[in-house]
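User: I'm putting together notes for a lab meeting next week and I want to include a structural view of one of the chains we've been expressing. I don't have a solved structure, so I'd like a prediction I can at least talk through. The sequence is below, exactly as it appears in our construct file.
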Amino acid sequence: MTDVLFKNALLLDTVDGSLLEGRHILVQDGLIAEVSDGPIKGGGADEIDLAGKVLMPGLCDAHVHITAATANFAALMRWSPFYVSARTADILEGMLMRGFTTVRDAGGADYGIAQAVDEGYFTGPRVLFGGKALSQTGGHGDMRGPGENAIEGCFCCAGLGRVCDGVDEVRRACRDEIRKGARHIKLMVAGGISSPTDRISSTQFSVDEMTAAVEEAEAAEIYVLGHAYTARAVNRALECGVRSIEHGNLMDDTSADLFLKHDAILVPTLSTFRALADEGVEAGLPAELHAQVFDVLDAGMTALELAHRRGVRMAYGTDLLGVMHRHQLLEFAIRGEVQPPIDVIRAATVNAAQLFGMVGEIGVVAPGARADLLVVDGNPLEDLDVLQKPETYLKAVMKDGTFHKTELG
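Assistant: Thanks for the context. Below is the predicted structure for the 409-residue chain, given as structure tokens.
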């Protein structure tokens, strides 16, 4: 691994929300060794003069499904896992080339994919995996139609979820995913768009079952994230200790109160609803499920405005599926309709690092942090468009001190 000295950078401080002129950053052994407002002796490091271009941390996406190469989950669970892996490789590389250096998988990925990335067999962002999402029978992770009855507790290797009922089964499922290295546990605590037999408005898992999952996660020093839309489902999960809520489109002021009370994090995924509305059927979402997208589409913006106004901490998430992964940067534009650019950038950097338990390791350009760095030709604090058009503005992508894209000469 070659050491690199970036000179004359306009450094984006994601904590302070400012641009710092004339900064020099030394990268050694995959880490940021030094950040200075004066010259640094780089020894044998390759020197790159950024001439005032913006240097910033790599982006984080807190809600991805890297194995979801189709929006038809019922079909996906019947695919060969080898075929899924081949499709996953392209999805991962696309994410890295958009500037995402760390992603949190919310159901489907396992230790094998994370290991393949870490060892260089796949090119992509760092994968924080949780294994299979946990669902009750007939819940959002149960992809059987009403005429299908066979079940073995966990759908085939290509599926995103596993079914468990009752406190004992939930504990066993959590322990099994933790055994396999899960960085978090995902619970389907409400209905969803893509599942064939439940309703968006339903609540799922009992309080005792959710509490059991939280206890198992805390015992392993990880946390639980919960899929939920309605205020009723969101509030039940937060009261049980779920740390992050995915989606939350139909939350209300009582939900905001609980987010603040429990210091929990909201992960809106607004880009997926816009993409599903426009392209969902083409991407594989069954037509009979497509109509449910519109039950939460517009409400998502209302929830974003509420969360922003109330000071709820948010992380950047997309939840895109199939060919719609290409819209991963659309979330910047959508949130930018409500939030100032720095708040959206923080959601994809320092807030995500807090959620992942990686404060000081990712999301910042500071000594000791991983050298996950982007160079952009423009000021994202003034115009989020700079982050949405990587083919134009993204000049370099570095992960763990290795360039995966560079147009710096």
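A couple of points you could mention at the meeting. The radius of gyration is 21 Å. Confidence is low (pLDDT under 50) at residues 152-157.

User: Perfect, that's what I needed.
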